[in-house]
Design brief:
A hairpin with a 2-residue loop joins strand 1 (about 155) and strand 2 (about 160). This protein has helices spanning about 5-20, 20-35, 40-50, 55-70, 75-85, 90-105, 105-120, 125-135, 140-150, 165-180, 185-195, 200-215, 220-230, 235-245, and strands spanning about 155, 160. The chain starts with a helix and ends in a 12-residue tail after the last helix. Helices cover about 70% and strands about 0% of the residues. It has a two-stranded antiparallel ribbon. It is built from 14 helices and two strands, in the order αααααααααββααααα. It is mainly alpha-helical and about 260 residues long.
């Protein structure tokens, strides 16, 4: 937490400078939502945003997700109800509910929410990605790959068009390929996320490292596990990277990464 605090402070200043205050607050809140340690901070930011913009449907959805992740589902449902009043055709509550269930290790409930979201809006990017990840967590890697491959085409984010994959969706695809035993393909996909999309997600490096281990390339695996440590943006990444290094009998490196 101490190490992350200066980063968050700098990030907040940059967001508020580059974007308008409303967008800056939401983007920083989204960053906080990726880490359980900062959920209370996310809620405080979203409270502030809603005081300034009390009819902002998107902020209600973000705050609902933050409340769900802190196990305050009644509070979350109230915010999602307000979101639906302001944006009756939106599928964002279903998508957020799906991601909340995934974070709570409830992939079955997550899949149900994402399936309903995809049924209502077939091209919604994070509903498709979430459905793929839920299927992967349920042990259905084949259907997970099918879902992630749909992200190669034009999709929507909050109803707005967007093109192709990004670093995170490619990472999910690499994880699914790894689960299927397609190790070389997983390495290629993770490498694409890193080299073409500048992935800062620790799990991207973990996926590639695990594939290298399976193929016997221990030097490459050690390098990637160490990169995952430096890019540990989610709870659990650091522990997995250290466990990976221990499993191949390699030490944590003090060298600067070459990315």
């Amino acid at each position: 937490i101490i190490a992350a605090t200066p980063f968050m402070a700098v990030t907040m200043a940059l967001y508020l400078k580059v974007w308008n205050v409303r967008d800056g607050l939401e983007r920083l809140a989204v960053l906080y939502l990726h880490n359980d340690r900062f959920l209370d901070a996310a809620i405080r930011l979203l409270d502030k945003g809603l005081r300034n913009s009390p009819d902002d449907a998107g902020l209600y959805d973000r705050r609902a997700l933050a409340s769900a992740l802190t196990d305050n589902w009644d509070v979350a449902e109230a915010d999602w109800a307000r979101h639906r009043q302001l944006a009756p055709r939106s599928v964002r509550p279903l998508i957020s509910q799906g991601w909340a269930h995934l974070r709570c290790n409830q992939p079955g409930e997550a899949a149900t929410a994402f399936e309903e979201a995809v049924e209502q809006s077939k091209k919604e990017r994070w509903a498709i990605a979430g459905l793929g990840l839920a299927r992967l967590r349920l042990g259905d890697a084949g259907h997970a790959v099918e879902a992630f491959k749909r992200l190669q085409r034009k999709t929507l984010v909050d109803g707005r068009p967007t093109d192709g994959h990004d670093a995170l969706s490619l990472t999910y695809l690499a994880e699914a390929q790894l689960a299927l035993g397609d190790n070389e393909l997983a390495i290629a996909t993770a490498s694409n996320a890193i080299e073409e999309f500048d992935s800062f997600h620790g799990r991207t490096w973990l996926a590639r490292a695990d594939a290298h281990v399976r193929l016997g390339d221990i030097d490459a695996a050690a390098k990637d596990y160490n990169s995952a440590l430096l890019a540990a943006d989610e709870i659990g990444v650091e522990e997995r990277a250290i466990a990976g290094l221990e499993a191949i009998n390699r030490a944590v490196s003090e060298d600067e990464p070459d990315w």
